[in-house]
Structure formats: structure tokens, C-alpha cells
Amino acid sequence: MNSPNFATGIELKPIGQGFGCEVIGLDLSAPLPESDFARIRQAWYDHSFLVFRDLGMNPEQHIAFTRRLGPLHIMEREFNLPDHPEVMVIAKEERDGKPYGSRRVGLGWHSDGEDKRIPNAGSLLYGLTIPPEGGDTMFADMYAAYAALPQRLKRAIQGRRARFSRIDMHHVHYPDLPALTEAQKRDRPDVFHPLVRQHPRTGRSSLFVGRWARDVEGKPSEEGRVLMEELFAFAQNEAFTYRHRWRQNDAVLWDNRCMLHRAMGYDEERYVRHMHRTTIEGDVPRMAAPE
Ligand SMILES: [Fe+2]
Description:
Double-stranded beta-helix; three-stranded antiparallel β-sheet
């Protein structure tokens, strides 16, 4: 893929085969011409996730840049910045005896909002304070996973939808949290998403699985569960994954419509980590046409 010319001296450095690209030299304190913005957005579609290096960015700039990519989704959590609810805080520290950020988020493979009817299109996560070790983020390329899927599995999922269930999986992923209340269950009903998803911008097909996916619509529950476990294990094959080791002032923009990610732990007793995330509104996932 040729690196396009930017008016503002930005450089693109692809990380791998069409999956992941570094963006060097973006300066959000100066106006970003539409032509340069469009090249960055195209790089995002081409590579699925972008790593912006040395990005100095305050919450206003973070919000304004994300908004150029699509309407913002405000997380329904208490850990948004008080003056900027578009920005979610990830931190373990407390202020005035109260947590002010989400602590252990995203520890299993998932895409953001996969258990909702309208999952999030993308997220832009910014590392303000990064621990010297640990706290990596893993990414997995679901275009590549789908392309490599054995024909037997492609046939098994063609035209099918998976059931994503917070109700069934809450106690599995959050064993330390209280059980969901009846009201919370009503708020987070099961949703069904196509197992082969067509990206609304690139048109490419990807495998759509994740940690909330439980079984398969129209198949006996046990059979669907076994199939989901096989697909989920396949999606995590290291041939499709990349491990991001954060540097101070990195920001990572990922596309939830064609990839999975997972957070890795770090030593919370020894180190401070402080991150900000904006989230882009998505649309109802579209089933890919059969091959
Ligand atoms: Fe996430």
C-alpha cells in the first residue's frame, strides 16, 4: 500500500499485512486540512486500527477529532469526565474517596458494545500515563480470521446469527460483581448479530464473535455453544493478533466492526495508569452476502 502524501507532514507506517498502521506527526493543536483527515480515515479503513504516536491532546481536541470520524457515543457509565461526558476515564485511583475511572475493563476478547443492538463503530483510546510494564492491548483481525476459516466452519455459519447475552455471561466475565438485577436484565436483553459481518465502509466480510456470544440462533443450544467456542478459539489464533505495547501519548483508534481487542493486566499496586477514551456510534451489523 502506498503512503499518501500529507499536506501537514504526517507519515504512515504500516505495522503488518493490512492490519494496523502507525501515524506519526499528527498535530491536533493546528487545523487539520480535510484532505489530510480523509487520508487518515482511509488508512483506518485500510488497516483497521491506527496507532498515533506522540499525540499531545486535551479532551476538547480528543472529542473534536473523534467527531470527524462519526457521531459520538456517550458511555452509560459514571466514569465520564465531568465537563466532557464524551470522554470515559480509565484509571484505578480515587479522588475524595471515590473511584473516578473504570478499573479493570475489557479483559477478555471483545468488540465494544457487541452485546448491544447497535454496537460501537470505533474507539479512540489515549494513554496519558502508561505503566513501565504490563497493560498492553491485544488486537485481532477478524477479516483475516474469516478469510482463513475452514470451509466446514464457513458453511456452518453462513446466513446465521449468534446470540450475545449479557444475562448468560455476566457471572462468567464479572465473577466479582453482584448478579444483575431484574431491571438490569431488562435493560440488556439478548441480541442477535450476523456471524459473518459486512463492514459498512469497506464492504469486506469479517468473523463476528466475542466474549458475550453464547450460542447460535436456530441451532440446539449445546451445538451452538460448541460451535461458538470453536470459532472464538479460532479468532484468537496468534496469526491474526497484534500486541500493542503502549508508549506515553500514544492514542489507538480501532474499528469494532472488523476486529477484536482485549486489555492485559498490569501491576496496580506499583504503577499508575491513566487513559481517556472516546467512542464512535455504530449501526446495526449487516450480514455479509454468501460467498
Ligand atoms: Fe473494549
